Amino acid sequence: MAGVLDVTLFEKRAWDSAFFGASIAQITERRATAEELTEAVRQAREEKVDCLYFLADAGDPDTVRAAEANRFALVDVRLTLDCAIDRAGADVPPGDGMIRRARPADLPQLMELARISHRDTRFHADTRFDPARSGELYARWIERSVGGELADAVWVVDSDEAPRGYITASRGKAATSIGLIAVEPDYRGRGYGDRLVRTMLHWSASQGVDRVSVVTQGRSAPAVRFYERAGFTATTVEFWYHRWLRDM
């Protein structure tokens, strides 16, 4: 492509770099040619980048072939699902366990739950990342969400005098997005996840929002089935690739 040598094809990821103790950057486009990715790798080596992320359009075969030709490793299938809010049916169904807003006092248990609950994500799939550090990423995520930095609202399901699950939500102009959702293994199968989602839908409706979106792992059939039962439909499929330029 003409001019490919005149532009930087990636952006540095400052938070990821500081958290993992490595220089991390991400390709800025969802579609790329083999020439562009070759140049991105060259630029990254020159700037001493350790790992390049590439979120690619899964529907573009040329991009997929270009990523494979440049030794990018597929680490996740990123599936985005949307749900139109039915205001007449947005009430939360009854059940055991109280759904309430998260409190700072909940954080020790919520952070411990987060450390063990998101092991099907790309950071765990990429064995170059330390598994304990990858788990800690989600502990930090729920901590920052309860603190209001990464979410506008966080709910927990309170059972046996302790929080046993959580969901985080951020309100955008057009839609609410789910950030994290998890339920303790021993408390699954009680409908807690469904009630947490319904609580978030009810809140979104009260905020005047008509749509909710969520990103999940397309290779996790249970996660996809869970959201489909809640009324979500897949809208976008993308591939997460990582290209390591040095060992951790």
SSE inventory with pairings:
Blueprint: E1 10-12, H1 14-20, E2 24-27, H2 34-46, E3 51-57, H3 61-69, E4 73-84, E5 98-101, H4 107-117, H5 122-125, H6 131-146, E6 153-159, E7 162-171, E8 176-183, H7 192-206, E9 211-217, H8 221-229, E10 233-244
Report on the biggest sheet: 10 strands, mixed
Mean pLDDT: 93
Integer-rounded radius of gyration? 20 Å
Which sequence of strands runs across the widest sheet? 1-2-3-10-4-9-8-7-6-5
CATH homologous superfamily of the largest domain - what is it?
A: Gcn5-related N-acetyltransferase (GNAT)
CATH architecture of the largest domain: 3-Layer(aba) Sandwich
**Category from helices, strands and their pairing:** alpha+beta
The tally of beta strands, per DSSP, is: 10
How many individual helices?
Answer: 8
What is the H/E string? EHEHEHEEHHHEEEHEHE
Unreliable spans: none
**Overall geometry:** globular
Q: Which class of the largest domain in CATH terms?
A: Alpha Beta
How much beta, percentage-wise?
25-35%
Spatial separation of the terminal alpha carbons: 33 Å
Helix content, binned percent: 25-40%
